[in-house]
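From the shared-data thread, chain only:
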Amino acid sequence: QVQLVESGGGLVQPGESLRLSCAASGFSFSSYTMSWYRRAPGKERELVAAISSTGASTNYAVSVKGRFTISRDNAKNTVYLQMNSLKPEDTAVYFCNAVRREFGSNYWGQGTQVTVSS
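Structure, as tokens:
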């Protein structure tokens, strides 16, 4: 059974850092593009960052570029999101996503809350 389990969310002050993790199981992790999305209160879900199956390619939303870093460890079936210089506007529920387009596979985690507030 497919599982994506996010962890690492919490309450931090502006300027601080958090590292999110997403542990995957039940599918061939190393063959999937992995992404982090977020949904802020009253807003649509948006793509934050994505990483290719090998980790060779990444892309970021303009709003987080230079502050957030996505990475993956295919030996541990885990994808990470290092978030630095956090801002109140980064407050959202962060979701892990796994996609393999050629199979039409698309999996979601349950989300982890990140709150940035003084």
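The radius of gyration is 14 Å.
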